[in-house]
Amino acid sequence: MASEAPLDRSVKKIRAVFKRLAGKHEDPTSITCFEFVSGMQADPQFEHMTVDEIKEMFFDVAADGVVGEQDYMITEEEFINALTLKHPKSVQQAELKAAFKEFDTDGSGVITAGELRTKLEEQGWKFNDEQFERLTKQADVNGDGNISFEEFVNAFKQDRE
Fold first, then answer.
1. Which of 46, 63, 117, 118 is most deeply buried (CB count within 10 A of its CB)?
2. What are 53-86's pLDDT values in tens digits?
3. Cβ proximity of 22 and 76 under 8 Å
4. CA neighbours within 13 Å on the CB side: how many for 123?
């Protein structure tokens, strides 16, 4: 079975957030700026964004050229576009945070060698001790025996280059 593309997973998560926000009132087809900002602030994946950045994201897609109330509401499609097309760095950052949390199984804020090995093996990767040590040394830049979020992001970027 082929794994789902990261963008498809992101869109599913974004769609679920929209449904949760829109389901709080009579019109489940759109959300207000207040709902958008509140929803994004409540989601730890977007904690790196300021209120002004979140509002800017909302108004980027809400400015549809229609004067009146419509300008202050966004649909599910606009919501998805706001978080994927117009702000892909925010989505990438959110995906990296979610991936990091998946590896940081004890929630300590760092990935230990044991957590890393367990998660990689669960995903089908096989390493001998020498290979695994080389991998962890490459990711653990400061040599403290743990992989911080910053080190995780840097390792991810190196892997993509």
1. 46
2. 888 777 776 755 443 444 577 888 877 776 665 5
3. yes
4. 13
Residue 106, pLDDT score: 94
Torsion angle of C-alpha atoms 134, 139, 140, 141, degrees rounded to 10: 110
Residue 90: partners with Cβ closer than 8 Å, 6 or more residues away: 46, 48, 49, 57, 83
- Distance from C-alpha of 31 to C-alpha of 37, rounded to nearest angstrom: 10
Contact yes or no for 86/57 (Cβ under 8 A): yes
Q: Which positions ≥6 away from 81 have C-beta within 8 Å?
A: 61
Regions of the chain with pLDDT less than 50 = 1-4, 65-70, 160-161
- For residue 75, the surrounding DSSP H or E stretch is strand 73-75
* DSSP assignment letter at 108: S
**Shortest CA distance to 103 belongs to which of 126, 127, 119?**
119
Q: How far apart are CA 156 and CA 75, in angstroms?
A: 33
CA-nearest of 65, 66, 67, 61 to 32 is: 61
First and final C-alpha spacing in the chain = 27
- Alpha-carbon distance of 102 to 9, in angstroms, equals 14
